[in-house]
Amino acid sequence: MELWKVISMVMVAVGVYARLMKHAAALACLAVDPAILLIVVGVLMFLLTFCGCIGSLRENICLLQTFSLCLTIVFLLQLAAGILGFVFSDKARGKVSELINNAIVHYRDDLDLQNLIDFGQKKFSCCGGISYRDWSQNMYFNCSDDNPSRERCSVPYSCCLPTPNQAVINTMCGQNMQALDYLEASKVIYTNGCIDKLVNWIHSNLFLLGGVALGLAIPQLVGILLSQVLVNQIKDQIKLQLYNQQHRADPWY
C-alpha cells in the first residue's frame, strides 16, 4: 500500500510539473493532455490506496467496501476497453491514424513531441502515418509552391535509412524526398507508414501485451478478494461481540 502511495504522489508531482512547464498548444495533437491524465490517475490512485490502507488498519467496513468497489470498477473498465478495442478495431485504427496525423502537424511545436515521433519512426522503421507523403500535412514540410521553408517537400531525418558506420547524423538526408516516387524514395528513406507497422507489432506481441494485462488484473482481483474477506471477518467479529454482549446482560447466562 505504501509503495502505491509513493507512486501516486510521484505521478501527481510529474503531472503538475509537466502542466506548468509545457504549453497547451504543444500537446494539442493528443486526445488527452498527458499531464492532466497523470494528475487525475495519481490522485485517484492515492485516494484508492488510502481507503484500502486506512480501512484495513482501522477495520472500517465503509472504506474497505469503497476500496473493493473502486477496484472492481477499474477492472471492469479495463476489461471493457480491451473488448471494445478488439471488436471495434477499425475505429481504433482510425483514432490512432488521427492522433499520428495530428502529431505530424505539430511536429515542430514541441521538442519532446518531436523526439517522440523521431524515436517511433526509427524504432518501427517507418515514415508518416500511411506513407512518407503524410509529412506534407506539416507546414514546414509541405510541398506547396508558396512554402518558404528550407524543409519544403522533405521528411524528418528519422525517416532515413540507417547508414553503416556513420559518425555524424545527416539531418538533411530527407531533403526533397516527397517529390520522389516510392521506388526512388525507398533507396534513401522508409516509405511505409507507421500505422501498419504499429498494428503488425501489436499482432506479433499479443502474448506480451496479454501478459502485461494479466499482470495488471491479478493484483486488482487479489485486492478485491482480500478486501471482501476482511469485510466478512469484521462483520463476523461484530456479530460475535453483539452476541456476547446480549448474553452477558442475560442474568440466566
Question: How does this structure look, described?
Answer:
With 253 residues, the protein is mainly alpha-helical. It has 8 helices and no strands. It is elongated, with a radius of gyration of 27 Å. It starts with a helix and ends with a helix.
What key attributes describe this structure?
single chain, 253 residues, mainly alpha, elongated, cytoplasm
Unreliable residue stretches? none
Using only CA atoms, what is the Rg? 27 Å
Largest sheet: none
Number of helices: 8
Question: Cα distance, first to last residue?
Answer: 44 Å
Structural class: mainly alpha
Helical proportion?
55-70%
Q: Residue-averaged pLDDT, rounded?
A: 84
Strand content: under 5%
Quick overview of this protein structure:
With 253 residues, this protein is mainly α. The chain has helices at residues 2-21, 34-58, 61-87, 89-105, 111-124, 182-185, 194-204, 206-249.
List the helices and strands and how they pair.
Layout: H1 2-21, H2 34-58, H3 61-87, H4 89-105, H5 111-124, H6 182-185, H7 194-204, H8 206-249
Helix pairs in contact: 1-2, 2-3, 3-4, 3-8
Membrane topology: Multi-pass membrane protein
Family: Belongs to the tetraspanin (TM4SF) family.
InterPro entries: Tetraspanin/Peripherin (IPR018499), Tetraspanin_animals (IPR000301), Tetraspanin_EC2_sf (IPR008952)
